Amino acid sequence: MALMKVKFDLKKRVKLAQFLWLMYWFSVMAGVLVFSMGLFFKIELRKRSEMMDNNESHFVPNLLIGVGLLACGINAMGGKICYDSLDPSKFSRWKPMLKSFLVSCVAFNCLLVLTALLCFLMRIPLQFTLAEGLKNALKFYKDTDTPGHCYMKRTLDQMQMEFRCCGNNNFRDWFEIQWVSNRYLDFGAKEVKDRIGSNVDGKYLMDAVPFSCCNPSSPRPCIQYQVTNNTAHYSYDHHTEDLNIWKRGCRDALISYYGGMMNTIGALVLLVTILEVIVTIGLQYVNTSLSNLANPEDPESESEGWILEKTVKETFTDIMDKMKAMSKGNVVDEAGVDGVATVS
Amino acid sequence: MVLMKMKFPFEKRVKLAQCLWLLSWMATLAGAFTFTLGCFLKTELRRRAEVMDNTEIHAVPNTLMIVGLASLGINYFAGRMCQDALDAGRFPRWKTFMQPYWGVSLLFTLLMLTAVIMSYAMKGNLESSLKIGLKNGIRFYKDTDTPGRCFQKQTIDRLQMEFRCCGNTDFKDWFEVQWISNRYLDFSSKEVKDRVKSNVDGRYLFDGVPFSCCNPSSPRPCIQDRLTNNSAHYSYEHQTEELNIYIRGCREALVNYYMGLMNTIGAAVLSVFLVQSSVLVSLRYLQTAMEAVAGQENTEIETEGYLLEKGVKETIMEYVTPVLVFLQLNQVGSEDAEA
Fold it and tell me: Could you say which protein family the record assigns here (chain B) (predicted)?
């Protein structure tokens, strides 16, 4: 009992081949789209690699790039096969390899589904990478004279302004590190000596944030220093003031940015998968309808097309039997060789 | 004396018509491109409309949009005409259409050239508009509670951060304006009272700038207040310190940005103008060559094409004389009426 059998006359076969050719061209463009999205994602990750401690995994964008290129190749070949299927002499060239091509198409579709799944799941490792990377980035904010870290301040400032965020989890992260370099601290002043004396590591800590944490939408000029001291500023209550500096932490901001990007890319890859499944089914119909002409000599006769020759269950058991036979064949061969070896 | 006569055998006429057809399609695309450029420029000018005092500079994108739309129509008709030119029987029906068509197309082509000149010449206008707009923006920076001005602070802050500039001419503009609202000043403290008394208008002036003037590329944390006081900060000298805040004024930054944009657009529209002119010149030659064929039995004879039937001076006199006669008649009429 074949799966989803359909009768085909010449006209219907020609229409199917033309429609499928068009769909293959759309699939090639979809492959280009997936490739460019992978490239875009890779560039975006590279741009912020300093925030991720140069440790981020580029596996997903590389996979997207590879899958995009593969899609272009497979779909171009499929389009050529469809184009040739209208001419029986040309089609006979493709006939022997068509079955293996279809199997590879099915495997490619599974790869696409896996890619989409990975896109959605990449959020989790990214969270850990960002937490670690931002913590270190904040530590190196003041080291503008150390080779290798001299642009960390500028990168962090620009990122905080662009993503409207402050600190790692929130603005209090700035209170726990020394972000003013010792070059600009007057160690002769009493205030500096007090602050350094007040903690074990001898760090100059204060309840202040850099200027890049300031929110332009605040009605009053930005209060950066003595943020938690209500008496230091006129008419100021830091518990109720939420427009002064950005409340959100940069880890949350970056994760929602990348998460949104990855969700969009994953959804697009799923749409491309659906397109690929449609063209694979179409090609299977073309293959079976051209292989089962009622009258093999007459190319204009009627034929039947189907997706699977037997039902799904029977096809599955067939494949399992084949695999068992292959593995048993191997065992028998080895036993035979061993037997011959022991005898001789 | 005919202007720029050229001989046109039949094959040359056919080639001219085919060339013109292709050229008119290119010119149509170029016209659409001009319209898009006009829309883009208008959008960019509107984004910063809050720091501009007047909208006179919008004449440039408006002209570009009008010219772009007109050239779509002009080139469409040019294409239709050259399609009919290959058939001697169908060409004469365009005869009555030609005179107004030439008038309109010459007008809009000249308008295109005007737009290019304007995009270079209106720099002074833009600069004075920005000067007044930025001055007001800085004055009203503190009025975040006044309806109509409450977003001035946000606009100026975002502008300074995006264009990397500070103040109008330079950062010292902030020293001359009270940019902290009275709501946030403690009038019982001695420091505030001293500053307010130290000037005639009773304003709280000090040598500090808003946070949006800070330069992220500076190696040290931003110094915003007491900028001219070297002893207030450790290891600081304001005369040599260049990276702390943005040195450039916002007027200069914005003028550079918009002039760069308009210069590029002007160069692109100039090339569109050249394409458009070549379309019109080719169409004129085709028209005059085909007019000589009309009425002849053998349509494949050689004819002459020209740009103007008489010389330039005579053609101008031909068009201007009726206008002068009309004006003189009016003058004579009014004198008679007075007498």
Answer: Belongs to the PRPH2/ROM1 family.
Averaged pLDDT for residues B251-259 = 96
Residues in B touching A185 (Cβ below 8 Å)? 234
Distance CA A103, CA A109 (A): 10
- Enumerate chain B positions whose Cβ falls within 8 A of a Cβ in A: 144-145, 150, 153-154, 157-158, 161, 179-181, 183-186, 210-212, 214, 216-222, 224, 233-235
The closest of A27, A8, A10 to A278, measured between CA atoms, is A27
Burial class (CB within 10 angstroms; exposed 0-12, middle 13-18, buried 19+) of A17: buried
Q: Does A183 touch chain B (CB under 8 A)?
A: yes
* Residue B89: pLDDT band with limits 50, 70, 90: confident
Structural Rg of chain B based on CA atoms: 31
Q: Do A161 and B184 touch (CB under 8 A)?
A: no
Residues in chain B with CB shorter than 8 Å from the CB of A150 are 219
Distance from CA of B49 to the nearest CA of A (A): 19
Give the number of C-alpha atoms closer than 13 A to the C-alpha of residue A68, restricted to the C-beta side: 20
Summarize pLDDT for B121-155 with one digit per residue, the tens. 999 999 999 999 999 999 999 999 999 888 999 99
Q: What sections of chain B are H helices per DSSP?
A: 10-47, 59-85, 95-121, 123-139, 152-163, 190-197, 250-293, 312-338
Q: For residues B61 and B269, give the distance between their C-alpha atoms in angstroms, rounded to a whole number.
A: 12
Q: What ipTM score was computed for the predicted complex, to two decimals?
A: 0.81
Which DSSP symbol is given to B144? Answer: T
**DSSP 8-state assignment for residue A8:** E
What type of residue sits at position A46?
R
Q: What is the distance between the alpha carbons of residues A20 and A102, in angstroms, rounded to a whole number? A: 14
Select from B145, B218, B234 the Cβ nearest to the Cβ of A185.
B234
Could A184 and B210 be called an inter-chain contact, meaning their C-beta atoms sit closer than 8 Å? no
- Pairing type for strands B6-8 and B303-305 reads antiparallel
Rg (CA), chain A: 32
Tokens of residue B264, six digits: 């590029």
The DSSP-derived string for A77-122 is: HHHHHHHHTTSHHHHHHHHHHHHHHHHHHHHHHHHHHHHHHHHHHT
Distance CA B229, CA B208 (A): 10
Beta carbon pairs, A and B, within 8 Å: 73
Q: How many Å apart are CA B6 and CA B306, to the nearest integer?
A: 6
- Of all residues in chain A, the percent with pLDDT exceeding 70 is 94
Asked if A210 reaches chain B (Cβ–Cβ under 8 Å), the answer is yes
Contacts of B233 in chain A (CB under 8 A): 184
Distance (Å, whole) CA A172 – CA A175:
5
Could you report how far apart the first and last alpha carbons of chain A are, in Å?
A: 52
Contact check, Cβ <8 Å, B234/A186: yes
Q: Which residues contact B97 (CB under 8 A, 6 or more apart)?
A: B77
Q: Cβ contacts (< 8 Å) between B220 and chain A: which residues? A: 144, 180-181, 183-184
Q: Do B183 and A235 touch (CB under 8 A)?
A: yes
Mean pLDDT of all residues in chain B?
A: 90
A186: left (phi over 0), alpha (psi -120 to 50) or beta: beta
